[in-house]
């Protein structure tokens, strides 16, 4: 039939690379950009099918985040704005690796049957496309468009160069029936930020002390550019953007960006000793990660890192405080469930701190899809990876309760502390991206809370003291030879390896170590924590030796 011949014809224009098996990892497909066209083309087909199945708009983001500039990748946003549902991942894997157009069509037909996709009648599908600033983005965008248009009735809407969280936000908003322009994204962020500013107690004189400039490392990527844009509408903050991605400033992710800063614990290019002590932040290549840091004086640009765990802790503490003001009267029909989600990479000191606050802390494997899913089980679920990817989810049920409560308070106790706490929580729910971790919205919330508390970055950093840690990566022939359990804290295969790790860990006070195959790079990652930096380094090194 017609559909079949269109597919065969267009697929033959995107032959898969020979001898490479590509897999849907921690967050979509990633590889050297030169081998990705066929994958991106096929993901275009998948997105169209998903759109037909869900009768909603689906998003495709072309980015390789913090990877080097020659890599690229593609992530799929589901109707809610979250990551593609996990039951479709095996299909993504199999169509990406289909050897020829005939096999591809066969797989697609099987899948349509299996998932009962209402295919073949009068059908429509819409896919929003976004990409970061990588030079390979343009031709991959074209491949995605061709994949989409090879499904009858499917249309692609190019949203342009965006951060990953902007694209996810647009998909979510579109499916909720609200505005999707980039300007509406900026408006929502700046309006809710201003609302939080207006709710800061006026008599507080501490505020002026920390209204010093913030310096942001844009990783030479899309985030820097977008932050320049956002800046214009948040006049109360003084933000200086460096590594903003402008011509000639430097190379994407090369010794800059959140991943570099977090893993190396070293200031990015473009920063110097002159910046010592100043509050600095760093975004990653697609602006879904955020870390803060300050440069230590006379240290050769060593930094104190204020990572995702500490952002999480700042958020959790503030929300807990607002909730306890709101709940003073014990007049709620049921207790509000506030939960915190971390991974094994969370610094042990952060977990202790959060538990001491009386919070419920749970763990999932690495990868936002797992954290997000878990956090969605709470009224307010806060999740963060140590690397700075995270957000705060508010359940719809809780939001409608909060809206009702705010209205009640407005008519009975207008301007009371309780009323203000309710308004703050509402403002946070609209400031912080509900679809996915977002460095720009996260940054505004951090700044708002620091201003509210009258805290410097140094004061914030003192919430608790990180245990020294070390991360290493080990290149291996087949990273999938390692399998893990218990949120990746225990090695299952190869046998004997976990016992060897246990023996190493036992040699170090406060020692903790685990290994796992990376989902985005061809390596095994090693993590170690111990009571001193030297001990953490040694533990990581000795565990890594068992991996080789
Ligand atoms: P992998 O390569 O699977 O470790 C990395 C990060 C994840 C996540 C993804 C997606 C670490 C240790 N891992 O995944 O947390 O952010 O990239 O960007 O930071
Ligand atoms: Zn990223």
Automatic annotation (TrEMBL):
Reaction(s) the record says it catalyses: N-acetyl-alpha-D-glucosamine 1-phosphate = N-acetyl-D-glucosamine 6-phosphate
Pathway info: Nucleotide-sugar biosynthesis; UDP-N-acetyl-alpha-D-glucosamine biosynthesis; N-acetyl-alpha-D-glucosamine 1-phosphate from alpha-D-glucosamine 6-phosphate (route I): step 2/2
CDD domains: PGM3
Keywords attached to this entry: Isomerase, Magnesium, Metal-binding, Phosphoprotein
GO molecular function, one term: phosphoacetylglucosamine mutase activity
Named cofactor requirement(s): Mg(2+)
BP-aspect Gene Ontology terms: carbohydrate metabolic process; UDP-N-acetylglucosamine biosynthetic process
Residue span, Phosphoacetylglucosamine mutase AMG1 domain: 210-291, 307-455
Binding site residues for substrate: 385-387, 516-520, 525
Residue ranges constituting the Alpha-D-phosphohexomutase alpha/beta/alpha domain according to the UniProt record: 56-88, 123-175
UniProt record similarity statement: Belongs to the phosphohexose mutase family.
Name of the protein in its database record: Phosphoacetylglucosamine mutase
Species this chain originates from: Thalictrum thalictroides
């Amino acid at each position: 039939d017609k559909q079949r011949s269109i597919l065969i014809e267009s697929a033959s224009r995107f032959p898969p690379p020979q001898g490479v098996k590509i897999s849907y990892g921690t967050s979509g497909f990633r590889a050297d950009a030169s081998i990705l066209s066929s994958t991106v083309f096929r993901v275009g087909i998948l997105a169209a099918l998903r759109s037909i199945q869900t009768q909603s708009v689906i998003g495709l983001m072309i980015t390789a985040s913090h990877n080097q500039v020659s890599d690229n990748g593609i992530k799929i946003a589901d109707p809610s704005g979250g990551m593609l549902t996990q039951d479709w991942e095996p299909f993504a894997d199999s169509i990406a690796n289909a050897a020829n157009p005939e096999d591809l069509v066969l797989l697609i037909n099987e899948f349509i049957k299996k998932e009962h996709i209402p295919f073949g009648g009068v059908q429509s599908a819409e896919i929003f496309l976004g990409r970061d600033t990588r030079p390979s983005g343009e031709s991959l965008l074209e491949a995605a468009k061709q994949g989409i248009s090879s499904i009858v009735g499917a249309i692609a809407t190019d949203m342009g160069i965006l951060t990953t969280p902007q694209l996810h936000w647009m998909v979510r908003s579109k499916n909720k029936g609200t505005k999707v322009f980039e300007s509406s994204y900026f408006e929502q962020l700046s309006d809710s930020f201003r609302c939080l500013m207006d709710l800061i107690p006026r008599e507080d004189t501490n505020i002026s002390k920390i209204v010093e400039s913030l310096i942001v490392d844009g990783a030479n990527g899309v985030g820097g550019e977008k932050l320049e844009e956002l800046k214009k509408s948040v006049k109360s903050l003084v933000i200086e953007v460096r590594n903003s991605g402008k011509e000639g400033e430097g190379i994407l992710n090369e010794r800059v960006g959140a991943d570099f800063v977090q893993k190396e614990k070293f200031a990015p290019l473009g920063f110097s000793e002159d910046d010592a002590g100043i509050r600095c932040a760093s975004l990653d290549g697609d602006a879904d990660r955020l870390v803060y840091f300050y440069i230590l004086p006379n240290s050769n640009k060593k930094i104190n890192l204020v990572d995702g765990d500490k952002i999480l802790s700042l958020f959790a503490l503030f929300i807990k405080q607002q909730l306890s003001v709101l709940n003073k009267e014990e007049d709620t029909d049921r207790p509000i469930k506030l939960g915190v989600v971390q991974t094994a990479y969370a610094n042990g000191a952060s977990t202790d701190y959060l538990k001491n606050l009386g919070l419920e802390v749970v763990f999932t494997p690495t990868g936002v899809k797992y954290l997000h899913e878990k956090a969605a089980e709470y009224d307010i679920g806060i999740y963060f990876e140590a690397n700075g990817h995270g957000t705060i989810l508010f359940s719809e049920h809780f939001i409608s309760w909060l809206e009702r409560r705010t209205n009640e308070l407005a008519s009975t106790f207008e301007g009371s502390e309780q009323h203000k706490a309710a308004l703050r929580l509402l403002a946070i729910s609209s400031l912080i991206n509900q679809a996915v971790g977002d460095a720009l919205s996260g940054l505004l919330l951090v700044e708002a809370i620091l201003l509210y508390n009258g805290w410097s970055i140094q004061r914030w950093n003192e919430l608790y003291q990180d245990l020294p840690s070390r991360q290493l990566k080990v290149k291996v022939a087949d990273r999938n030879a390692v399998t893990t359990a218990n949120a990746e804290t225990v090695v299952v295969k190869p046998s004997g390896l976990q016992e060897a790790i246990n023996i190493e860990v036992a040699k170090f006070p406060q020692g903790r170590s685990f290994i796992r195959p990376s989902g985005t790079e061809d390596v095994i990652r090693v993590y170690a924590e111990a009571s001193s930096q030297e001990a953490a380094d040694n533990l990581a090194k000795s565990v890594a030796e068992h991996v080789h």
